[in-house]
Amino acid sequence: MGARASSLGAAGDVAARNRMGQLLACMINRPEHLQAAVRYETESARATPLAKDGWGIGFYHAGEVLHKKRPKADAATGWAGMFEGVRSDVAIAHVRDATVGAPRANNTHPFRMRQWLFAHGGSIGGFAAIRDRLVTGLPDFLQRNLRGDTDSEHLFHVLLSFLHDSGQIDVPEAAEQAVGAAIRSTVTLVDQLSREVGAPVGDLNLALTNGRDLYLLRRGGPYYLTERSSLMVEPGPTDGPDNAAPSDTRYVLALAQELPEKPMGYRELGDNTVVHVSRDLAVTEQQL
User: Are strands 22-28 and 64-70 parallel, antiparallel or unpaired?
Assistant: First the structure.
């Protein structure tokens, strides 16, 4: 029974590796300009999210973690449309291409636990065969917090368990070193379990934030990042069409999506790269 399950799981993994959700994460110093920054960047990059199995966005307002989720595809909604009315220092948006779990709200990214938000593009290798082992390794309070069926939500909770072990899950400003260690430990554990059932290791493009810092992991599909020191603000209704001027808006925006070509001002993250964006928009990179 175990060998057959592994074989079936590996066959499913081959197909799943050709499908990845699309991610956009942004940290900005002027929350009121978040949608404008997303619109400018995605239009410049010709980044049109594919209408797949719904979309979601997670963000922060007045200290609260908020969600907007649409579990069904909406071809009319582009990246900027997802951010309509959203004012936040940091936000994560995700377009789902379902490989595990039906299209419903509990399976729609980003996932939330306390102040943490998380989204994933890719699939865990051999997830059906290792799911029970992932769950039983979690603390009880994290097991109870699982709401959906996706491998991505389980991956998030494994990461949270490592943050819990290091005492970082509830602190207002988690230590960068501890979060990086939790990401590495999560990948190591999941890869080990996948290999044990004869499955390939999964694609793990990730975005994680606690509202203070933003963390990215590129492993698998393309992941692009830009750092901007100004934003061309659209002219107001009484301004002339040539009166747009650079604002004092600064931001870091990351996009995990296939693009026609690398956009100007972006760099493609190397495979197995972990990125940390601090609240003052300083960017550091490390190998996994």
Answer: unpaired
